[in-house]
Amino acid sequence: MTRRSALARTQAMAKPRRDGGAEGVAKSIGERLRRIRLERNLTINSLAKVARVPASTISKIENGLLKPSLVHAINLASALNENLGFLVDRYRAEPQRTSVVYANERDRLEYKEMGLTLHDLNGHFSAGLLEARYGILKPGAHSGREPMTHAGDEICCVVKGGIVFHVDGERWTLTAGDAIHFKSDRPHRWENAAKGNTEVVWVFSDGLSF
Length: 210
Known about the structure:
Blueprint lengths: L2 H12 L6 H19 L4 H8 L3 H8 L7 H11 L27 E4 L4 E5 L10 E7 L15 E8 L1 E6 L2 E6 L3 E5 L4 E5 L5 E7 L6
Helix pairs in contact: 3-5
């Protein structure tokens, strides 16, 4: 690392992380959802039917009153043929050919109802085939009682703790060092199997992720 790049990194680390708060995040998500829906010439009711998300929920999201749950985010992204990144506060306006994400500079997304924190590992890399996340699952964390489906492949590797995956009627228990790979259009859900936090790395194909 050159002296100049080291200095630049030190200065970047010293800058406070910008945080507009939950209200600001919800508003920016809602604005993006409304813009993309209108670009598709869809009404709220027509999107609700395709995405299987209540029209009232979509209206609240668009007006910045509600952050979408993971299942609703997946259904909306699939219905709009969009990367799930458009529903998080990390939109890559200036894609880079090479992206380095330092541990203390990762963008984070909280799913409090699931007990899940996701760290973005892609940074500002050009949107494409693969998306990666570092997940921290609190005790009792789970993806929801109902299974989810979405396009592409999903890989999950356990770094610490344990996780149980339910995939199309099969149950798999993974601990540190274990990994699972499956087609994401198969109904699946997961839950933290450890008494403490579990940490995992997720990789998704087809540019669809959370």
